[in-house]
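Whiteboard transcription, Tuesday session. T.W. wrote the C-alpha cells on the left side:
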C-alpha cells in the first residue's frame, strides 16, 4: 500500500522503516528540515539498535523516501500521524502538533477523491480521535483510525516489526479493512474496537506498568529498612503467573518520554471528568521522590556529600537509547550538585545532551576515567559498558570503594569480594 507517516521521531521513523520492511511504499514527512536531510542521507537522527541499517536498506530498495511537506503524502492510502504530544504546564497532553498535522491533512485531502485512512499513532486522550474526525469532516472519504503504539525505546524496531498486539479503534468497516490490509504481514493479537477504547488502552497500559514499578520502589524502601532483598522478593512474586515477572525491577524509578507524561495526562483527563485516580497520583509521587530517597541514602553512607567526588554511570533514561527525556540521571545530578558534590559522568551515547544541561559535570568517554579518584560510583542506567566492569581495575582507580547500584544489576557478592561496600536499592 502507499503509506505516509507524519512526524519522523522515535515512533514515526520506526513505523516508516518497519512498514517499508513489510513491503509497503512509504514516505516519511517532518517539518524539521534538518532531520529530513539527514534521513535522506540514510542517517538516523536517533540512536536505536538496528534502525540505521534497516533505514539504509529500505531507501536503497526504493521503498522509503522523506519529504518536509505534507504534499509528499498526496498518493497515500494510509496516513499515520506520529507527532509528539508532550506534557503541557497543567499536565494535560499538548495537542498543538497533532492539530497542526491534521490541518495539513485537511488541506491536502479536502479536494482529492479516494478512500483513505488517517491513523493517529500518537498517544492522545480519549475523545481526541473524534475531534480530529470532526476537523477532517470536509474530507468525505477519510476514515479516522486510532492505532496506538506500544514500542519501547531501545528495542523500537523489533517491537514494531513484532508487536505484542495491534489495537485498532475505528467506526467504519472500510477503516478496519484498510488496517487489515496494512498489517496483513504482521502477526500479533488484534483488538478491534472503538476509537475511545483504543485511546484509553494506551494510557491504561502505561499507567499500569508505571504502577508496578512504583509499587516495587516503595516496597524497596521498606526492604532497605527490614534488611530483606527486593530482588528476591520480586523473583518470588513474579513466579506467580497472575503477577508475572516483568516490570517488577526496583531502582531509581521510571523516566522517558512516555510514563511520566502519560500518567500526568491520564490524571488530568480524570480530573476534568471529576474522577479521582488516587493510586496513580501516588505512583507519580513515589517516582518523583525516588531519586531524592536514594541520594539521601548515599549521603548517609558517605557521611555527607559536600566536595565528595561522585562518578555517575549511565545518563539516558534506559539503556540502548540516547533519549534523556525525564531521565533519572537529571534528577540525581541535580540533587548531588545541590549538596555540593563534584561529579564525573559517563554514557555511551547521551553525554552530550546532558552536558548541555549540566556543564559543571566532568563528562568522560570511558567508564574507568569516570571512576578515577571517585569517592563513590552510582549506577543510574544499566548500559552494558556500565555493568561489565573490571572490578580490580575500578578498585585501584577509585579513592574510596563505595558502590551505589541504582538499578540492582551489579554482582553484589563479587564486588564485595573485591573489597567494595555495595548498596543497591532495597537489597540486603
Ligand atoms: N517514544 C516512544 O517510545 C513512544 C512509544 C509509543 C508512543 N509514543 C507516542 O508517539 C508520539 C510521538 O512520540 P516520539 O517519541 O516519536 O516523538 P518525537 O518528538 O521523537 O517525534 C515527533 C516528530 O514529529 C515532528 N512534527 C511535529 N509537528 C509536525 C507536523 N505538523 N508535521 C510533520 N512533523 C511534525 C517533529 O519534528 C518530530 O520529528 C507521542 O504521542 C508519544 O507519546 C512514543
Ligand atoms: O521493572 C522496571 C521496568 C522499567 N523501569 C524503568 O521504566 C522506564 C520505562 O522503560 P520502558 O517501558 O522499557 O521504556 P519506554 O521506551 O518508555 O516504553 C514505555 O513507554 C512507551 C511509550 O508509550 C510504550 O510504548 C511502551 O510499551 C512502554 O514500555 C525506564 O526508565 C526503565 O528504567 C523500571 O524502573 N523497572
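and on the right, the sequence the group agreed on:
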Amino acid at each position: 500500500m502507499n503509506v505516509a507517516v507524519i512526524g519522523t521521531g522515535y515512533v514515526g521513523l520506526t513505523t516508516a522503516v518497519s512498514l517499508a520492511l513489510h513491503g509497503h511504499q512509504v514516505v516519511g514527512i517532518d517539518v524539521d528540515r534538518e532531520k529530513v536531510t539527514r534521513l535522506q542521507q540514510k542517517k538516523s537522527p536517533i540512536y536505536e539498535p538496528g534502525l540505521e541499517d534497516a533505514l539504509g536498506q529500505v531507501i536503497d530498495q526504493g521503498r522509503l523516501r522523506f519529504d518536509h511537506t505534507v504534499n509528499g503524502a498526496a498518493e497515500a492510502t494510509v496516513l499515520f500521524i506520529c507527532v509528539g504530544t508532550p506534557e503541557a504546564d497543567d499536565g494535560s497532553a499538548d495537542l498543538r502538533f497533532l492539530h497542526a498535522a491534521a490541518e495539513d491533512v485537511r488541506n491536502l485531502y479536502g479536494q482529492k477523491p479516494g478512500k483513505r485512512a488517517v491513523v493517529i499513532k500518537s498517544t492522545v486522550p480519549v475523545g481526541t480521535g473524534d475531534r480530529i474526525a470532526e476537523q477532517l469532516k470536509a474530507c468525505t472519504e477519510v476514515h479516522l483510525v486510532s492505532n496506538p503504539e506500544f514500542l519501547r525505546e531501545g528495542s523500537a524496531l523489533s517491537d514494531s516489526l513484532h508487536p505484542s498486539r495491534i489495537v485498532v479503534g475505528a467506526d467504519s468497516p472500510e477503516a478496519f479493512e484498510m488496517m487489515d490490509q496494512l498489517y496483513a504481514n504482521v502477526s500479533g493479537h488484534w483488538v478491534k474496537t472503538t476509537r475511545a477504547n483504543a485511546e484509553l488502552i494506551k494510557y491504561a497500559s502505561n499507567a499500569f506498568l508505571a504502577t508496578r514499578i512504583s509499587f516495587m520502589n516503595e516496597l524497596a524502601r521498606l526492604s532497605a529498612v527490614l534488611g530483606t532483598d527486593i530482588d528476591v522478593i520480586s523473583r518470588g512474586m513474579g513466579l506467580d503467573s497472575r503477577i508475572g515477572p516483568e516490570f517488577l525491577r526496583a531502582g531509581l524509578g521510571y523516566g522517558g518520554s512516555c510514563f511520566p507524561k502519560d500518567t500526568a495526562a491520564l490524571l488530568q483527563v480524570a480530573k476534568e471528568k471529576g474522577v479521582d485516580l488516587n493510586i496513580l497520583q501516588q505512583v507519580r509521587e513515589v517516582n518523583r521522590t525516588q531519586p531524592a530517597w536514594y541520594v539521601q541514602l548515599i549521603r548517609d553512607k558517605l557521611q555527607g556529600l559536600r566536595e565528595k567526588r561522585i562518578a555517575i554511570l549511565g545518563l539516558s533514561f534506559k539503556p540502548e537509547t540516547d533519549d534523556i527525556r525525564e531521565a533519572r540521571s537529571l534528577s540525581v545530578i541535580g540533587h548531588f550538585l545541590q549538596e555540593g558534590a563534584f561529579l564525573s559522568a559517563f554514557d555511551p551515547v547521551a553525554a552530550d545532551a546532558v552536558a548541555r544541561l549540566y556543564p559543571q559535570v566532568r563528562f568522560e568517554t570511558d567508564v574507568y576515567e569516570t571512576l578515577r579518584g571517585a569517592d563513590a560510583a552510582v549506577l543510574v542506567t544499566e548500559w552494558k559498558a556500565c555493568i561489565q566492569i573490571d572490578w580490580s581495575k575500578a578498585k585501584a582507580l577509585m579513592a574510596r570503594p563505595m558502590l551505589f547500584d541504582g538499578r540492582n544489576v551489579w554482582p553484589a557478592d563479587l564486588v564485595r569480594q573485591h573489597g567494595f561496600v555495595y548498596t543497591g536499592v532495597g537489597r540486603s
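Someone added at the bottom: Residues 6-12, 29-32, 35, 82-85, 97, 100-101, 122-123, 149, 151, 153, 257-258 surround nicotinamide-adenine-dinucleotide (ligand 1) (CB under 6 Å).
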